[in-house]
Design a protein that fits this description.
The structure is a single chain. By secondary structure, this protein is of the alpha/beta class. The chain is 41% helix and 19% strand. The chain is built from 16 helices and 20 strands. The strands form 6 sheets. It has a 6-stranded mixed β-sheet with strand order 1-2-5-3-6-18. The protein has a 5-stranded mixed β-sheet with strand order 12-13-9-15-14, with helices on both faces. Strands 4-20-19 form a 3-stranded antiparallel β-sheet, with helices on both faces. 49% of the residues are buried.
Length: 534
């Protein structure tokens, strides 16, 4: 019998995967794929076909794993996608040392029930849940995929299975962005016909929602940002300057919860945009110089819209904010009987870059940007803002001005709800779940937790993503998206994963019956349906 097939074996595998601590940007994340590779070599098929177990690397040296079972009977291929990094564990407080030991943590939590919210306490007392960091997001998905490929290779299923698991999903999805060319290379090398990309991220619900979901798409996410440049002055002479903080308030008010950014498709709507960061760029020390440079960073979700669409809407919103700022500032100047310093203008990053290149020369600008890019201690969002800051400090005559840009990451939306294969699969799974477990499976068209499915089956127009490239200061050096390879990975997507609650919280937990008994049957049903289609 193949490995990891019984509920007991699956739980043991899950607890072992979780114990390999793999928080994003830690040594554990770097070591995890090697532990996993050693585990997979115990599968007889991979002992005999070791060439089908490969690593792929991100630019910073982290690795993902590609495990390929070839049936020898068909070109039809299902790609199983997962990630193995987790968020941090400080939220566990005095129980942090148990965060990666689910069985022990679940046992100990009974002594600290009073610390848990009501729903989590009830679930703990039910005995139906396993608690711990990564048990639902998403080590269980990986465990299920390992079970599938072990059984497929043992029983010689008539469909090829490609297991791909990546680092860094929780931060920038560098792992999946590097997995795309690796998948494409494997597809070409073995002449594979990819029929489905199947992720097994967990079911996501709001508080009190006990429904079990499957997803036929994944929501998109993009991060419009701005650097605001005003005019410095001494705090004792405030009307001689214009603070970037003052300017930023108008943009934030126009962007935050702006319903123009909401999309509605198939009865589902994107969450409203919200600010993720707003701060000045004056450093940590005290100064009586007013803050004349500031940054704001927003989160926007998308279904059908492209980067180009969002940027056009962002510019329109910024221009409205600038107009409101100018009007308010003008009133203050009239009240104080002073001459305004000028109207706040709006520019895109690419416009600033071209202006700076004409003024100082492309070689000089290239040196300035390289200086900022090489500061590895800063993340890509901070580097993007610092590049704009560096340029505007050499073009101060443009102020007061709002410079618009894109920060990273960017997740294009993907959807296969109208694909015949997916439509049939949804019906088959819903029927099987009801018959076998009296379980109702509800279809959702867009997985709202953001997933690596965004980087396959890209259907957007080139101009749509070129807008991101042109206005992302770190593009091509610290951050890229393999759009051309994504366009070639034409296959429908689905997400079917275990039921759990409270991802990214200290009460993260997994429903044991669903994970260890129901999900293996539902996933096998899905794969059987895909492999038997004419």
């Amino acid at each position: 019998m193949a490995q990891w097939q019984t509920p007991e074996e699956l739980e043991q595998l899950l607890t072992e995967l979780v114990s390999w601590q793999s928080r994003s940007w830690t040594e554990g994340e770097r070591i995890f794929p090697h532990h996993l590779m050693n585990k997979l070599t115990n599968v007889p098929y991979f002992r005999e076909n070791s060439r089908n177990l490969t690593f792929f690397k991100t630019p910073d040296g982290r690795e993902g794993v590609n495990a390929l079972y070839l049936s020898g009977r068909s070109r039809r291929t299902i790609v199983l996608l997962s990630h193995f990094d987790t968020v941090n564990t400080e939220d566990y407080g005095h129980l942090e040392n148990l965060a990666f030991h689910p069985q022990r943590l679940t046992e100990i939590l009974h002594d600290y029930k009073e610390e848990l919210p009501g729903e989590a306490r009830k679930d703990l007392e039910s005995g139906e849940y396993l608690f711990g960091r990564g048990v639902m997001d998403m080590k269980m998905g990986l465990a299920l995929h390992m079970s599938i490929i072990a059984r497929a290779s043992e029983e010689k299923w008539p469909v090829n299975i490609m297991l791909v698991t990546v680092p860094d999903e929780e931060v920038d999805s560098a792992g999946m962005r590097e997995a795309v060319p690796a998948i494409r290379d494997t597809q070409q090398r073995y002449d594979l016909d990819i029929t489905l990309f199947l992720n097994s991220e967990p079911t996501f619900q709001e508080l009190g929602d006990d429904h079990f979901y499957m997803y036929s798409g994944s929501i998109g996410k993009i991060m419009p940002a701005a650097l605001l440049y005003g005019k410095e002055t001494h705090v004792g002479n405030p009307m001689s300057g214009l603070t970037a903080n003052y300017m930023a308030t108008f943009l934030t008010q126009k962007m935050e919860w702006n319903p123009e950014f909401r999309e509605t498709e198939m009865g589902e709507s994107t969450p409203l945009p919200i600010s993720l960061r707003q701060k000045d760029l004056m450093g940590t020390g005290y100064s009586t110089q007013t803050p004349y440079r500031a940054q704001v960073l927003f989160n926007a979700f998308l279904f059908k819209r492209s980067a180009k669409d969002i940027f056009e809407l962002f510019r329109k919103t910024a221009e409205e904010a600038a107009e409101a700022c100018n009007s308010s500032y003008g009133e203050v100047c009239r009240r104080e009987d002073v001459q305004p310093l000028g109207d706040v203008q709006v520019m895109e990053y690419r416009e600033l870059l071209h202006y700076a290149e004409r003024k100082l020369g492309k070689d000089i600008i290239r040196i300035y940007i390289k200086e900022v890019m090489e500061k590895e201690e800063e993340d890509d969002r901070e580097v993007a803002v610092r590049i704009v800051d560096k340029l505007i400090l050499h073009c101060q005559e443009l102020g007061p001005v709002i410079i618009l840009l894109f920060a990273t990451p960017y997740y294009p939306a993907v959807n296969s709800s109208e694909d015949p294969v997916v439509m049939g699969a949804v019906d088959v799974i819903q029927q099987k779940a009801k018959e076998a477990f009296d379980l109702t499976v509800t279809q959702v068209h867009y997985f709202n937790g953001i997933s690596d499915l965004s980087y396959v089956n890209y259907n957007g127009e080139t101009e749509g993503w070129k807008a991101f490239e042109r206005n992302s200061p770190v593009w091509g050096e610290r951050y890229t998206i393999p759009f051309e390879d994504m366009e070639k990975l034409k296959a429908p997507v689905m997400n079917l994963g275990p039921y759990g609650k409270d991802a990214h919280k200290r009460t993260e937990r997994l429903h044991k019956k669903n994970a260890f008994q129901e999900m293996p049957v539902l996933l096998e049903t899905l794969i059987d349906y895909i492999s038997e289609r004419d």
